[in-house]
Specification:
By secondary structure, this protein is an alpha/beta fold. It is built from 12 helices and 13 strands. The protein is 34% helix and 15% strand. Pfam families: 2-Hacid_dh, 2-Hacid_dh_C.
Length: 334
C-alpha cells in the first residue's frame, strides 16, 4: 500500500521518507497542499497524510472518501481545519500528533520576542548596506520586566521556564493553573489584569470557538502602549484588522507573528512574484516594529522527527485495526 503525503517541504522530505522506510511503509511525497483542488490526487489511496495548513472542510473530505480514502494522518497538533463531524459521517479515521517537542515552539517564540525588542531585522537590513548607525535600534532589558503567558500547557511552561531564567516577573492566564509554573513564581490572574500589567505577552492557547480573537480590539487597548506581543500559536487568536488599527496609532514596541489568521494559501508558499491580495497582511508588513515569519516555530529537526514518528505510528495502528490517543474520530467512535 502506498501512502500519499501532501504539503511536504524540501527539508522535511528526507526525514519523512526515512521514517516511513524504517517502518517498511511506502510513501509518495507531494509539495502541493491538501485543498479542494488537490484532493482528487488522493484517489485510490486509502491513507493520506497532510500538513498543518491542509484544508479539510466537508467538501474536501467528501472528495477524499469518494476516491477511496479512509484514513487521514495529520502531521500537526491543531485540528480546527478539519470538519470532524463530516469525517465521522463518512466513516473515516482522522488522527493527529497530540504532542511533540514544546521547546521548539517556546524557543522560537523567545527568538521572535528578542528580535522585535532589539530590532534585529531592521539592524540586519541596515548592515547589509554597510549602514552601522544605532538610530532607532534601542531596545529594553527583559530582565526585571513582566511577562504575561496566555496558556501554560507544555509549550507555555517551556516558555515560562525561559522567562524565569531571564529573571522576569511571571503572570499566567489559563483555565487550569500549571503547578510547575506556579512553582517558578507565576501568579495566575485574570486576562484584563495580565494585559494591563505585562510588558511582553506571548500566546500559547489552542484555537477554539471560545478563543477566536482572544486578543481583539478591546484586549489590544488594555495593553501597554509599549508592550511586546508574540503569537506563535494560532493566527485566529488575534484580530488582525484591530491590530493594524492599533499599530497605526503608534502603539506597541513590537509585534511578532509566526501565524496569521488568513495564512492558508499564503504560508509555506512562494508568493514573491504575485500581487498581494490580502490587504491586512500587506499593511502589517509595512510597520517597522512588526515581524512576520512563516509558521516555522515547530520546524526543528527534533520536533519534526517526533511528528513524523507519531504520524507513522498512527498509520501503523490504523492498518492493524488499533486505536490510540491521537485518533480524533474513527468509525468506532460514531
Amino acid at each position: 500500500m502506498e501512502i500519499l503525503a501532501f504539503g511536504v517541504v524540501s527539508d522535511e522530505q528526507p526525514l519523512l521518507e526515512e521514517a516511513f522506510r524504517e517502518r517498511q511503509l511506502s510513501v509518495r511525497c507531494l509539495e502541493v497542499f491538501m485543498n479542494r483542488d488537490t484532493a482528487p490526487l488522493a484517489s485510490g489511496h486509502e491513507v493520506v497524510s497532510v500538513s498543518v495548513n491542509a484544508d479539510l472542510d466537508a467538501e474536501v473530505l467528501k472528495i477524499l472518501a469518494a476516491g477511496g480514502t479512509r484514513m487521514i494522518a495529520q502531521r500537526a497538533t491543531g485540528f480546527n481545519n478539519i470538519a470532524l463531524d463530516t469525517a465521522a459521517g463518512l466513516g473515516m479515521t482522522v488522527a493527529r500528533v497530540a504532542a511533540y517537542s514544546p521547546h521548539a515552539v517556546a524557543e522560537f517564540a523567545w527568538a521572535l520576542a528578542l528580535a522585535v525588542n532589539r530590532h534585529v531585522a531592521r539592524a540586519t537590513r541596515r548592515t547589509r548596506d554597510f549602514d552601522f548607525r544605532l538610530d532607532g535600534l534601542m531596545g529594553r532589558d527583559v530582565h526585571g520586566r513582566t511577562v504575561g503567558v496566555l496558556g501554560t500547557g507544555r509549550i507555555g511552561e517551556a516558555f515560562t521556564r525561559i522567562a524565569h531564567g531571564f529573571g522576569m516577573r511571571l503572570l499566567g492566564w489559563d483555565v487550569t493553573p500549571n503547578p510547575a509554573c506556579a512553582a517558578l513564581g507565576m501568579e495566575y490572574v485574570g486576562l484584563r489584569r495580565l494585559l494591563r500589567d505585562a510588558d511582553l505577552i506571548s500566546l500559547h492557547v489552542p484555537l477554539l470557538p471560545e478563543t477566536h480573537h482572544l486578543i481583539g480590539r478591546a484586549e489590544l487597548r488594555e495593553m501597554k502602549d509599549d508592550a511586546l506581543l508574540v503569537n506563535s500559536s494560532r493566527g485566529g487568536l488575534v484580530d488582525s484588522e484591530a491590530l493594524v488599527e492599533e499599530l497605526r496609532l503608534g502603539r506597541f514596541s513590537g509585534v511578532a507573528l509566526d501565524v496569521y489568521e488568513a495564512e492558508a494559501g499564503l504560508f509555506f508558499m512562494d508568493r514573491s512574484l504575485d500581487v498581494v491580495q490580502d490587504d491586512v497582511l500587506a499593511r502589517l508588513m509595512t510597520f517597522s516594529n512588526v515581524l512576520v515569519t512563516s509558521h516555522q516555530a515547530y520546524f526543528t529537526r527534533d520536533a519534526v522527527g517526533q511528528i513524523l514518528d507519531t504520524t507513522v505510528g498512527n498509520i501503523e495502528d490504523y492498518l492493524a485495526g488499533r486505536t490510540n490517543a491521537n485518533v480524533l474520530v474513527s468509525p468506532d467512535s460514531t
